[in-house]
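Letters spell out the chain; backbone shape is given numerically. Take this protein:
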Amino acid sequence: MRPTPANLVRILVPIKRCVDYAVKIRVKPDGSGIDTNVKHSMNPFDEIAVEEAVRLRERNKEAITNITAITIGPAKASETLRTALAMGADSAIHVEIPESLTPEPLGIAKALRALIEREQQKEPIDLVIMGKQAIDDDAGQTGQMLAGLLDWAQATYASKVTISDDKRSVNVVREVDGGAEEVEWLRIDHLSHRFSSLEPRYASLPNIMKAKKKPIEKLSSEDLKIDLTPKLEVFKYEEPPKRVGGGKVANVDELVAKLAEAGIKAIPTS
């Protein structure tokens, strides 16, 4: 049974360690993968998710009991968790996997489901806030898959999350084509898939020092009884072709001639 009153909320924020967004991606000479011996940092969209969870707690200090960050990655990913803790998360869970293993979205979603079901025995997770996608694979699938596996509702492309005064429902504003959509859940036990223009806070030195004392629970995929082996095989990586500069023409007749050389027929204007 949950040790806290039913109107209190615990938030889970999955995060991912990625090659830093400012690093130029380079393919290995043999085409077997990309060079990962470069700077890594938290996925920028996940930073936004952590920021939203912290702001949500700041607006509802009496309602939110805990913000837990989780990552599924190699040993070095613990540094990313420390960043989330310095931003304001209370605790963290690290499902450690070999650095050579690159799980797919479905495997990650299954691991998160197993973790949530495991946590229900202690202090249940009421709300999951996620970045809309990771900047390395750009899949954008884990949130939707997790919602499906848990049979939870979801709000994709959320731009604002608000908890009701009675702490029993959540209101979400979603970005949709042509504007915004507002939805409300009558129970706070659902998934919010986060995308926003929030500016994540910088961790101050005191908070970085405090983060070193916050707990990080270590688990393995075996603990969760989940197989994270990829189902897809990548045969080769290639860099995109380099862009070729354009040319200038003196007049329309020369332009038409150039198009004809390229096999493009000009459309008569009259």
